[in-house]
Amino acid sequence: MSERTIVEPGVVLGQWWRRTADGRIQCDLCPRACKLHEGQRGFCFVRQARDGGIVLTSYGRASGFCIDPIEKKPLNHFYPGTSVLSFGTAGCNLGCRFCQNWDISKARAMDRLGDWAAPEAVAEAAVRAGCRSIAFTYNDPVIFAEYAIDCAQAAHARGLKAVAVSAGYITPLARPEFYAHMDAANIDLKAFTDQFYHRLCFAALAPVLDTLRWLRHATQVWFEVTTLLIPGHNDSEDEVARLCDWFAENLGPDVPLHFTAFHPDFKMRDVPHTPASTLVRARTQALAAGLHYVYTGNVHDQAGQSTYCAECGKLLIERDWYELGRWNLDARGGCAFCGARLAGYFDPRPGRWGARRQQVLSSQF
Ligand code: SF4
Question: For a designed S-S bond to 211, which of 89, 159, 168, 293 qualifies (C-beta 3.0 to 4.6 A apart)?
Answer without folding.
Answer: 168
